[in-house]
Design a protein that fits this description.
With 660 residues, this protein is of the alpha+beta class. Helices cover 40% and strands 24% of the residues. The protein folds into 5 domains: 122 residues, PAS domain (Beta-Lactamase), CATH 3.30.450.20; 110 residues, PAS domain (Beta-Lactamase), CATH 3.30.450.20; 122 residues, Beta-Lactamase (2-Layer Sandwich), CATH 3.30.450.20; 69 residues; 160 residues, Histidine kinase-like ATPase, C-terminal domain (Heat Shock Protein 90, 2-Layer Sandwich). The structure holds adenosine-5'-diphosphate.
Length: 660
């Protein structure tokens, strides 16, 4: 439901006057030529003038004689101008009571605008707190302080001390002001007015409690309660809107009886200081971020070599937080190794010369911590005048780099060794391959000659020729097998195999090619011994061990071969009374191309591949091979393989026999 807006009631002039008379504050209205047009009941009481008498009179009748010519204008105009500058805040005004006494009044001046009819309106309030305001008119309000502009009625010519005081106040690089109680501004210097973005004339008489900045108002209140106080903040001028970072100190001002009769303020523009502080904070934040996040360790020491700063990276090396270091010396933090490091610092301190990239092995120095290797640089930190303020040090963890370098050297050595082994191998291999070729071609030439002459061919020559051919084939097979093993491709074709039979066969073949020398004794097992294996490869293992036993037993003697089943394992041994193997070499025996030290001193042919191939074959059968040996007394090679039953239990049904 829409409600009708009530019609604005026409206010009768009489009713309006009744309203004015009902007001608690005194009200005075003047026209543009400063004639009093109207005053309300409260004004009548305050000024002691009956309305009928004062209305129509010039405002100047209310102005005390000494303010009649106020700054070459009228007091009313001055107050009006000031009102515009102080944004309608109250000010202290001296007015004359009908009896002639001066009243200190708090006034708010306003006007209806410059367009006619212009009316100036004053709202007045008596200041009962001002002691003897009537007895000593205005002395407390617009008091003639030495630095205040001289005006009519100045009590006396300034003394020398007062002039000096004025000089100091006027030239101080700070804003200075004085206020009474209540806090009307009594006096201030130009610097203060400048800081607030206005003029001194506009400020004088202003009631400081009407300032917009409540923190300033609180400071004024506290000062009037007799305490010193401080203000720091961005003061925004109401009139200009200018924002100035200010710092102010307020102090109460007491009379001889100790009563607080006002206060003083000292105001400082801290714009530059703030900017410098901000710049410094930015610089510090930047520096501390750099310090903290730098991937290197950093520390600063004072001239007594105590930690002033240390970044997290360096502090963490010992597992202690950075705070634990501050104020302590290196020996205090690191123990004896710290003494040594401190000597370097002292050297830099004494000579003023930096020490660059000192390589430190923490373990050797006895330093605990996560960095094994590091480089330390130490340098003096100087003030602009060259004085040494302290020392800085930069510590870099070089553990990774050092290890990489060591690894690189190791790899280089290994590569060089591999090249050497390869070169040796090529020399040996070509020699080894040629060794059976020469007698073979000799034998074949003899046989050829005999055939030409029609002489009978002897079986032993043919056998020996075949022996050389077998040797050659074995060498070539070893080379091929070795490269197959390297590429993971040595295939097995397992089948149930009588190992005792295989050994007997290998011994027979070996003996058939062998010239007189050693004897081979096979301790035949009582029961047949079967394994799941590749007969071709197992024969290779047995032949190799047997050939080695013969080859490395140059002084003759018996080679003992044994075979037995122990539980789930079949154990074959080949023992010889030969040259033996140095104990420190035994663990390398099954490595590719390895040849024991003692074989190179005698000229035993070989490529160092046989045992390497044996180990691979045995391992692929699920077995193991090892040696027991003593230099000069002979060697025993052991081959352990799973029995047929054990292999079956592991792998299930027997695979079909395969052909090679
Ligand atoms: P090769 O005999 O061709 O050098 P092997 O791999 O068969 O290669 O043997 C490797 C090395 O092991 C031999 O060079 C030798 O030093 C040592 N060795 C092997 N068998 C015996 C053995 N029965 N007595 C002494 N040393 C042996």
């Amino acid at each position: 439901m829409r409600r009708e807006k009530p019609a604005v009631a026409h206010i009768e002039a009489d009713e309006f006057k009744q309203w004015m008379d009902a007001m608690a504050d005194a009200l005075l209205v003047c026209d543009d030529v400063e004639h009093i047009l109207y005053l309300n009941r409260a004004a009548e009481l305050l000024l002691g003038w009956p309305r009928e008498e004062l209305q129509g009179q010039s405002f100047s009748v209310l102005v005390p004689p000494r303010f009649q010519a106020w700054k070459e204008g009228s007091l009313l105009r001055h107050l009006l101008g000031k009102r515009l500058a102080s944004a309608g805040r109250s000010t202290l005004v001296p007015l004359r009571h009908r009896t002639g006494a001066e009243l200190a009044l708090e006034a708010v001046v306003s006007h209806t605008g410059k367009e006619p009819p212009e009316r100036v309106i004053l709202t007045l309030r008596h200041l009962p707190e001002v002691p003897d305001a009537t007895a000593e008119p205005l002395e407390l309000g617009l008091a003639p302080y030495p630095w205040q502009h001289a005006h009519q009625g100045l009590a006396h010519a300034p003394t020398l001390a007062e002039r000096l005081y004025q000089l100091i106040v006027e030239n101080a690089p700070l804003g200075l002001f004085h206020f009474g109680n209540p806090p009307f501004l009594i006096a201030c210097n130009d610097q203060f007015a400048g800081l607030l973005g206005t003029t001194r004339q506009q400020l004088l008489g202003l009631n400081l409690l009407t300032l917009r900045d409540m923190r300033v108002v609180d400071c004024i209140r506290v000062t009037l309660q007799g305490q010193h106080t401080r203000y720091e903040g961005n003061y925004v001028s109401t009139t200009t809107g200018k924002c100035t970072p200010l710092r102010a100190h307020f102090a109460p001002f007491r009379d001889e009886q100790g009563r607080v009769v006002g206060g003083v303020g000292i105001v400082e523009d801290i714009t530059t200081q703030r900017r410098m502080e901000q710049e410094r904070d930015t610089q510090l934040a930047l520096a501390s971020t750099l310090l903290r996040t730098a991937p290197v360790g950093m520390a600063f020491y004072d001239t007594r070599l105590r930690f002033v700063h240390i970044n997290d990276v360096l502090a963490s090396v010992t597992g202690q937080p950075p705070e634990a270091y501050i104020g302590h010396t290196l020996p205090e933090m690191l123990g004896p190794p710290g003494i040594q490091l401190e000597q370097f610092l002292r050297h830099v301190m004494e000579t003023g010369q930096p020490l660059e990239r000192l390589e430190v092995n923490s373990r050797e120095m006895g330093l605990l911590g996560t960095w094994e290797y590091s480089t330390i640089s130490m340098y003096p930190v100087r003030a602009p005048d060259g004085r040494i303020l302290g020392l800085g040090s930069v510590v870099e963890d070089t553990t990774g780099a050092k290890r990489a370098e060591q690894e690189r050297l190791r790899l280089l050595r290994e590569a060089q060794e591999a090249v050497r082994v390869r070169d040796d191998f090529l020399t040996i291999a070509s020699h080894e391959l040629k060794t059976p070729l020469t007698p073979l071609s000799l034998r074949l030439a003899t046989l050829e000659r005999k055939l030409e002459r029609g002489e009978p061919l002897d079986a032993s020559s043919l056998q020996q020729a075949r022996g050389h051919l077998v040797r050659l084939t074995t060498l070539i097979n070893d080379l091929l097998d070795s490269s197959r093993i390297e590429s993971g491709g040595l295939a097995l074709h397992p089948q149930p195999t009588r190992l005792d039979v295989l050994i007997e066969h290998v011994i027979r073949v070996t003996e058939s090619f062998r010239e007189a020398g050693n004897r081979i004794a096979f301790h035949v097992p009582v029961r047949p011994i079967e394994v799941m294996g590749d007969p071709y490869r197992l024969e290779q293992v047995i032949a190799n061990l047997l050939e080695n036993a013969l080859k490395y037993s140059p002084d003759g003697g018996t080679i003992h071969v044994s075979l037995e089943a122990r539980g789930e394992v079949v154990l074959m041994t080949v023992s010889d009374p030969g040259i033996g193997i140095p104990s420190d070499q035994q663990k390398h025996l099954f490595e590719r191309h390895f040849r024991a030290r003692n074989v190179s001193t005698h000229s035993y042919g070989g490529l160092g591949l046989g045992l390497y191939i044996c180990r691979d074959i045995v391992a692929r059968h699920g077995g193991s091979i090892w040696v027991e040996s003593e230099v000069g007394r002979g060697s025993t090679f052991y081959v352990a393989l799973p029995t047929l039953q054990a292999s079956r239990a592991l792998t299930g049904p027997t695979p079909e026999p395969q052909m090679h």
